[in-house]
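Supplementary Note 2. Why include the ligand at all?

Several targets in our set were suspected to adopt different conformations when bound, so apo predictions alone were not considered sufficient. For every target with a known small-molecule partner we therefore ran a joint prediction. The input for phosphoric acid mono(formamide)ester is given below.
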Amino acid sequence: MKKDLLSINDLNKDEILELIALAQDLKKDPWRETLKHKTMALIFEKPSLRTRTSFEIGMHQLGGEAIYLSPAEIGLGKREPVKDVTRVIERFADVIVARVFAHETLTEMSKYTNKHVVNALCNKEHPCQILADLLTILECKGTLQGLKIAYIGDSNNITNSMVLAASKLGLHIAVASPKGHTLDENILRAAQENAFHTFAVIEQTSDPKVAVKDADVIYTDTWISMGEEAEREERLIAFKDYQVNMELLSHAKSDVIFMHCLPAHRGEEVTDEVMESKHSVIFQEAENRLHAQKAVLVKLFEEK
Ligand code: CP
Ligand code: NVA
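The joint prediction is reproduced in C-alpha cell form.
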C-alpha cells in the first residue's frame, strides 16, 4: 500500500482484496496489540457518527490511541493554514484521519507529512466507506465476481469511490442519475482506464429501472450531501424520480440487497419500507466500517 489512502484508485485489485480478507480476519478476532504505541489524530471539518466512532474504537481495539478534533476546534485553513496544521499534528500523531470538504486539503496534508493520511470523506471520495461496502457485499453474496451493482441518485463522493472500486475489481456497475448530476468526468475516465484491464462494465443511465435490472446490489445515498444544504429545494425536485422504493426493488434480482452508507433520509432517496425490508443490510454495512478501517490501519503501518 502507498503511504496514504486518499482514493480507491490508490489501491490495486490485490490490495483491495487483501484489505477485505484482513477485515474478515479482524472481524473474527477484534482485539490485537498491532498498533500499540501508535497515535491517531482525527481532524473533521464535517459531522460524523460512523466514521469517527469506528476509527476511534478501531484504533483502541488495535492497542493504539486516537484523539478527535471537531470542525470548531482547529479551524483548518481558517485559523491556521492546512500545511501548518499538518506539520504540527505530525509531531504528535502517527496517522492523520481527515474528513474535509476539498480533496486538495488531503493532498496538501499528504505533501507536508511523511506520516499516513487517510481520507475519512471529502467532496470527491469516501474510500473507507466503500471498502466496508465491498466486505458487506462479499459477506452477503459469497463472492465479488460477476455481480451487478446499481447505484441510484446523486453522483457524489460515494458513487465516485464505488465506481472506481467496481472498475478495479471487474464488476458491472450501473449508475442512474438525472441530467446535471451524472458522474464526474475525471472519475469516469479513471474508471474506464481501470476497466480496460479488468473488463468491468460501467453503465450510465437516467432510468433507475434500467440500472436495477438483474442487479445483485442496489445502493443509494442522500440527495443532499454535507455542504450542499443551500441546494436542498432544487435537489429534491431533480431527484424526485430516483427514490429507491419497493416498486423499484421488484425490478432487480429477487435476492437483491439494499445498501446505504447512512445517514438516510426516509421519504427522500429511500422509503422506510426498503430500509426495514429483508433486503436491507445497512447496519451490517455500518458495522463493517470498523473492520475495514482497522484493516487499512494495520496495512498502512505494516508497509512503512
Ligand atoms: N457513512 C458515514 O460516513 O457516516 P458518518 O457521516 O456518520 O461518518
Ligand atoms: N454523500 C454523503 C455521504 C455521507 C456519509 C455526504 O457527503 O454527505
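The pocket of phosphoric acid mono(formamide)ester (ligand 1) is lined by residues 48-51, 121, 129, 261-262 (CB under 6 Å). DSSP finds 13 helices and nine strands in the chain. Comparable summaries for the other entries are listed in the accompanying table.
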